Amino acid sequence: MARSYLPSKVSEIVASWRKDLSKVNPKAAESLADPEEYSNMFDDWNAALAVESKVAETRGTYPPAEEYVKYADRSPVNLVEAFRSMQIDEDAPFENGGLNHEVEERSGEEEEQEGAQDEGQEEAVVVDADSTDGAVFVNGNEADEEWGTNNEGNPSA
Predict the structure, then answer these.
(1) What's the whole-number mean pLDDT along residues 104-132?
(2) Positions of the region Disordered (predicted)?
(3) Span between the terminal Cα atoms of the chain, in Å
């Protein structure tokens, strides 16, 4: 397992591999692709370089040993995926507003009508009248024992 995240050093490694491989198979050595030359062949290459520069800020900073328990259960993190999830989609609206924030104005009367409609309505439940299995569902779960029936759906004694 790698202990350092240094995608910027991949070109140096590829050059070393090429040099070593050219002694055995020059054609295979030529076929090794360097991400610096062919970044289109490497998914997320630019993101990986951006992650490296971001991670470099915290390199060499280690948590104290007494905090080991906090970090021990963490699963391995894919840094590129974590970096992507942190990126803000430029087209998406900001949660707390942004530069183009527009406030939707409503009259107080409209809000009162919507609130009154939402409060008094319950979700409709569809019941199959032809069903003969005797099952009773409470919150979507079958609850035979709670309602006094045995496993066959007959009332228990």
Answers:
(1) 53
(2) 89-157
(3) 64
- Domain definitions of the chain by residue range: 7-86
**What local confidence, expressed as pLDDT, does residue 144 receive?**
46
Instruction: Calculate the CA 119 to chain-centre distance.
Output: 34
**Exposed, middle or buried by CB within 10 Å (0-12, 13-18, 19+), for 6?**
middle
Distance from C-alpha of 52 to C-alpha of 36, rounded to nearest angstrom:
15
Check: CB of residue 156 under 8 Å from CB of residue 148.
yes
User: Per residue in 126-140, pLDDT tens?
Assistant: 555 555 555 555 555
Q: Residue 32 is encoded by which pair of tokens?
A: 């090794």
Confidence band, pLDDT 50/70/90 cuts, at residue 33:
very high
DSSP tag of 147: T
CB 16 within 8 A of CB 34: no
| SS3 letters across 39-70 | HHHCCCHHHHHHHHHHHHCCCCCCCCHHHHHH
- Report how far residue 36's alpha carbon sits from residue 45's, in angstroms, rounded to the nearest whole number: 9
CA 146 to chain centre: 39
CA distance 44 to 50: 10
